[in-house]
Specification:
One of its GO terms (cellular component) is nucleus. The strands form two sheets. Strands 3, 4, 5, 6, 7, 9 and 10 form a seven-stranded mixed sheet that branches. A three-stranded mixed sheet has the order 2-1-8, with no helix packed on it. A hairpin with a 5-residue loop joins strand 3 and strand 4. Helix content is about 50%, strand content about 15%. It has 15 helices and ten strands. The protein has about 400 residues and is of the alpha/beta class. It has two domains: about 160 residues, Tetratricopeptide repeat domain (Serine Threonine Protein Phosphatase 5, Tetratricopeptide repeat); about 150 residues, Phosphatidylinositol 3-kinase Catalytic Subunit, Chain A, domain 1 (Ubiquitin-like (UB roll), Roll). The longest helix is centred in the middle third of the chain and has 45 residues. The protein starts with a helix and ends with a strand.
Length: about 400
């Protein structure tokens, strides 16, 4: 009769739980406050609060007397705690329900079925608190105590689905359906788990294929850069060894010359949304930065074809409408000079505006910094140009 009563109570709680849709519970207790929360539960109070008159609240005094009566058998105490937990559960007070079920398990009663129900009910409460791993552990414990306990198998399947362990969820469902082949909940869970498992496997295959494709494209890109003889620079953190002997990095200071073996850290995509790419015709397109030191301004070309010349882009940027910062109206394409800097020697190399980008990048002293070629733009013969170039070694690109 006692076992039947336990099953009926468990069934009632489970039926009540099924009325609610799944939702995250945000106000769960943790290891730092559980004792404080525990002490707020009337049935667990060791002493009656001073502001509560036992004569005025006889139910509280009676409840405390019943719960803390150690003379009662452990089974009876555990059953009372289970019933109290069920009441909290029905009120959606899941954290107090967990406390009640936990105290029931601490009684270590000899009733295996009752202990299985306590674990199963605590699994349900933990599930609603969002503690899926703890809920799954309780379902496992309940199954060990009572292998044919359908509710434990159901809880285990639900937790595995939430944890995205769809294969394990199917195993829980299969165990339950061997016991009760027509159980609709388990059938629905098995269908859902199978569908989710297939979707996850399909997504994994797609991700693998995408990664493989991207790897192939990167290898083709790197191979093309190497074949072109383009040199890359990657900003590196100075090591203690290199700071002691600057000659070890080839006098490149904080930069290291790269052989083009990888593009990690060489792309400007994170900062600008653009990166070098290879089109279907085998042409490289670079993100290019134009610097105007006289006015502290810049222009950015996200896809500069290696076959085009700087004059093509400057003619667009300084065409009929000049930028507002050019108050003297002197930035006309025919008035401009273009330079790149040798990051090793700090020398400037003047670029012929009619020279294709590829030829510039292939120059012995041209290095692509952080994946983005950059050029200094000056107004020919201007006072700023003369002052900027004074004291600098300037070479004309041949």
């Amino acid at each position: 009769m006692a076992s039947q009563a336990q099953d009926d109570s468990d069934d009632g709680m489970d039926a009540f739980m099924d009325k609610f849709t799944k939702q995250k519970y945000k106000d769960g207790f943790n290891e730092n406050n559980w004792e404080e929360e525990f002490d707020k539960v009337p049935m667990f109070m060791k002493t009656t609060p001073e502001e509560i008159d036992p004569q005025k609240y006889p139910d509280l005094a009676c409840l405390q007397s019943i719960i803390h009566d150690d003379d009662r058998p452990p089974e009876e105490q555990a059953r009372s705690l289970k019933d109290e937990g069920n009441e909290y559960f029905k009120e959606k007070n899941y954290k107090k329900a967990v406390v009640a079920y936990s105290e029931g398990l601490k009684k270590k009663c000899s009733d295996t079925d009752l202990n299985a129900v306590l674990h199963t009910n605590r699994a349900a409460a933990q599930f609603h608190l969002g503690n899926m791993r703890s809920a799954l552990n309780d379902a496992v414990a309940a199954k060990k105590l009572k292998p044919d306990h359908l509710k434990a198998l159901l809880r285990g399947a639900q937790c595995c689905i939430e944890l995205r362990s769809y294969g394990e969820a199917l195993q829980w469902c299969e165990e339950g359906l061997r016991i009760q082949p027509k159980d609709k909940k388990l059938q629905e869970l098995r269908t859902a788990a199978d569908k989710l498992k297939r979707t996850a496997e399909r997504d994994a295959r797609k991700a693998t294929a995408k990664e493989k494709k991207e790897h192939t494209e990167r290898e083709a890109l790197l191979g093309t850069i190497q074949e072109r003889g383009i040199k890359l620079l990657k900003l590196e953190r100075p090591s203690k060894r290199s700071s002691d002997n600057e000659e070890e990095d080839g006098d490149f200071g904080p930069y290291a010359a790269m052989a083009g073996l990888d593009l990690n850290g060489l792309s400007s995509q994170e900062a600008t949304g653009a990166t070098v790419y290879l089109d279907e015709q085998g042409t490289l397109h670079w993100p290019v930065l134009f610097l105007y030191p006289e006015h502290h301004q810049t222009d950015f070309v996200s896809a500069f074809s290696e076959s085009t010349c700087c004059i093509d882009h400057l003619a667009v940027m300084f065409g009929e409408e000049l930028p507002p910062w050019d108050t003297d109206r002197k930035y006309h394409p025919q008035n401009l000079e273009l330079y790149f800097e040798d990051y090793k020697t700090k020398r400037l190399y003047q670029v012929d505006l009619e020279t294709p980008l590829l030829r510039i990048l292939q120059h012995d002293r041209c290095f692509v910094k952080q994946g983005t070629p950059s050029f200094i733009v000056l107004v020919k013969g201007s006072a700023f140009c003369k002052d900027f170039l004074s004291g600098k070694k300037v070479h004309r690109l041949k």
